[in-house]
Amino acid sequence: MSRLPGWLSRLGTGVARAGERLEERRARAEDAEDSAPEPVAVKVSKSADGDEVSADNGNGTVPAPPAYAPAIAPRPDPVAAVPWSVRVAAEAGWRFLVLAGTLWVLMRVISSVQLVVFAFVAALLITALLQPTVARLMRLGLPRGLATAVTFIAGFVIMGLVGWFVVWQVMENLDDLSNQVQRGIDELQKWLLDSPFHVTGDEIKDISKSLRDAVGTNTEEITSAGLAGVTVMVEILTGILLAMFSTLFLLYDGKRIWRWTLKLVPAAARPGVAGAGPRAWRTLTAYVRGTVIVALIDAIFIGIGIYFLDVPMAVPLAVFIFLFAFIPLVGAVVSGALAVVVALVTQGVFTALMALLVVLAVQQIEGHVLQPFILGRAVRVHPLAVVLSVAAGGLVAGIGGAVVAVPLVAVTNTVVGYLRTHAQENALQQAAAATQEPAARTAEDSP
Fold first, then answer.
1. pLDDT higher for 400 or 58?
2. How far, in Å, CA of 362 to CA of 24, rounded?
3. What is the DSSP track for 238-252?
4. How far apart (Å, rounded) are the C-alpha atoms in residues 273 and 286?
5. pTM
């Protein structure tokens, strides 16, 4: 009995210690529950085979699939899925569409005011031709207004006299030319009958009858074209008056007009445009003056050649050669062919061959000697660019477009080249400034 109280004492001590340990475990469990995330309720459904399949109820993430489920690759970003070449083509494509639409709208606007545009472009070309004369007269001491008036009057009087001379020569020699053409056609018929081509007289008569029938059938169209020519003459006179007034103001006040135009350009692009403008004007001036000199040389030497070959209307033909020379490549071919055809129907095959030799010789000298020497590298345009620009200009705006196409390409080439150089210089200057700025700060911070 004496040992019983000690046993009870030890038992009570063990129970007390077990209670303390139980309390500690309960406290740790409560702390773990407070720090753990809230449990996610998952909806459990059964498949057709009876297996339990878990699904997200919209309040949490979907649990990981079981190990036996097939692996599903994640879908890539749509931008990364498109190939780089396709993205570049799409970026360039929509920009090209915007440019094409802008160009189409611009061409529609120009076509609606085509007469005004052609008159102003002609005024620019005439001003580029006459401006050096105004500057020379001013250096001699004449006031700007008087120098402009003298140059303007003299230039348009000379151009008017040239036009009157061509019309007068054609009207004076028209009867003689028609008689010579008839004799030439008769000689050509005889030559075809005696030629090895085995052409019979009946075939020649059939060709002549077809030509007469074609002319008779189209008499009404020819008459309507003659009536429409009155409207064309009115438009031509209106264009000439607009070109004259535009030339007068460009000669007298061209620099002020250019400064006003610069104000319409955005400020960021204004320095580049201000530098490109004078260079474009020098290119246009050099092109017009060089073309006039080359055309004059062609007209003089071809005119002298066909004059000594006794080709009728040699002087009007020389003037036509001068005028057609303003259409590069195509104009020379057309005017030379016209001279050869006139020589053929009036003087025969031998004279036509000699005229062809004269035309080819002069044009070869022009293409390989005169144009590189007179025009220089500033306005040199590749022959392929010349042909394509003349063809495009002719399709868009007829003869006027063919005349304007090449100087427009030359000026555009000069402007684009200068703007590219200007942009490169600005980039180099900015890079140099960015390099020098840290060096200056380091020098200022050093003791």
1. 400
2. 118
3. HHHHHHHHHHHHHHH
4. 20
5. 0.64
Tens digit of pLDDT for each residue in 49-65?
Answer: 444 444 444 455 556 66
* Residue closest to 382 by CA, chosen among 439, 322, 329: 329
Does residue 119 lie in a domain region? no
Tens digits of residue pLDDT in 218-254: 445 544 544 455 677 777 788 888 888 888 888 888 8
Within a domain: 237: no
Number of domains forming the structure of the chain: 1
User: Residue 97's pLDDT is what?
Assistant: 92
Domain that holds residue 327: 272-428
Let me know if 419 is exposed, middle or buried by CB neighbors in 10 A (0-12, 13-18, 19+). Answer: middle
Specify if 285 maps to a domain.
yes
Using the structure block, give the residue that is written with the tokens 């001068």: 322
Give the separation between CA 361 and CA 370, rounded to whole angstroms: 13
Closest CA to 288 of 258, 247, 316: 247
Round to whole Å and give the CA distance between 112 and 222. Answer: 27
In a domain, 296, yes or no: yes
